[in-house]
Specification:
321 residues; mainly alpha; MetI-like fold
Length: 321
């Protein structure tokens, strides 16, 4: 891996994020609705509306508003919420941890389970477990996240009472660190599990196909000829080469996971960015919406960069030039 490659990839981050910022800024500002009227709940007069538009710079031409916003971004200022008067950085920061916990758990769980299922199925190629894994992956991948979320919420939470209905912690919880971690994990289990379901299906199917393809390569036949067992052939040889497309898919689906997390958070009452996006959309809190979109865009671009750089670590034969 050479430094110039990393430098070129880093230089691609700025124009990509800038393009997303420009597009979202224009779309949000030309969308129907007036944030000042939403702020006043329709009860203000024209003088009040004019004063507030001037205060937030909304009486300026759109190009001037964009220039001001970009200048503030370059100084590290995401603006101030129209509704709370709090800085956007603080508003997002209060919710970001919960969303990162949810999405991070879903990514880790789905990767481990998906790869594990594919490896086990490959050890019994064309057997009952292999066919069952393939069929289950198809069904889960075709099932909408919001539908699965409502089913498990109704059955496992409301009917059986195994898991809490909503929230990140139990109301009135006043316990030690260990009890708090256990309580958070209990609340996290359903939303993270639902968010991971489709990713498990994607990873398992892709990993299964990759391993089956690798098992037909010459180096696999050589390993078998040297007396390697089937488990050694799959785990030590085929698995590592088959990981490359899986890593690519996981990195490219970060945006899908974030969008799925928004829906899951709303259904399970998880106090993350999903609820913040909904409330900000309803109140036309433009600075908060732009800040969230900018964060998501940067996260997706950065995850793709990390994915590319991980190739050389997974497969030493690859040299990034």
């Amino acid at each position: 891996m050479k430094l110039p490659y990393i430098g070129r990839r880093l230089l691609q981050v700025a124009p990509t994020v800038s393009g997303v910022l420009l597009l979202t800024f224009i779309l949000i500002h030309i969308a129907p609705g007036d944030p000042i009227q939403a702020l006043a709940s329709g009860n203000g007069d024209e003088d009040y509306y004019a004063f507030m538009r001037h205060k937030f710079g909304l009486d300026q031409p759109l190009i001037n508003q964009l220039g001001t916003y970009v200048g503030n971004i370059l100084r590290g200022d995401l603006g101030t919420s129209y509704i709370t008067g709090q800085s956007v950085s603080t508003t997002i920061g209060e919710r970001l941890g919960a969303t990162l916990l949810l999405t991070g758990t879903a990514i880790i769980v789905s990767s481990i389970i998906g790869i594990g299922l594919a490896v086990v199925a490959s050890l019994r190629s064309d057997g009952a477990l292999d066919h069952a894994t393939n069929a289950a992956s198809l069904i889960l991948y075709a099932s909408p996240v919001f539908w699965i979320a409502q089913l498990v919420l109704l059955f496992l939470s409301l009917r059986l009472g195994w898991f809490p209905v909503q929230g990140m912690n139990s109301a009135g919880l006043d316990a030690g660190v260990f009890a708090t971690v256990i309580d958070t994990a209990w609340h996290l289990a359903l939303p993270a599990g639902v968010l991971a379901i489709q990713e498990v299906a994607v990873v398992a199917r892709l990993m299964r196909s990759g391993i089956r393809e690798e098992l037909g390569q010459d180096y696999i036949r050589t390993a078998r000829a040297k007396g390697a067992s089937e488990s050694q052939v799959v785990v030590r040889h085929a698995l590592r080469s088959a990981l490359l497309p899986v890593v690519t898919v996981i990195g490219n689906r970060i945006g899908n996971i974030f969008s799925g997390a928004m829906v899951v958070e709303l259904i399970f009452g998880w106090p993350g960015l999903g609820q913040l996006i909904l409330s900000s959309s309803q109140t036309r809190d433009t600075p908060v919406l732009l800040g969230i979109f900018l964060l998501v865009a940067f996260t997706v671009v950065l995850s793709n960069l990390i994915t590319d750089l991980s190739y050389a670590w997974i497969d030493p034969r690859i040299r990034l030039k």
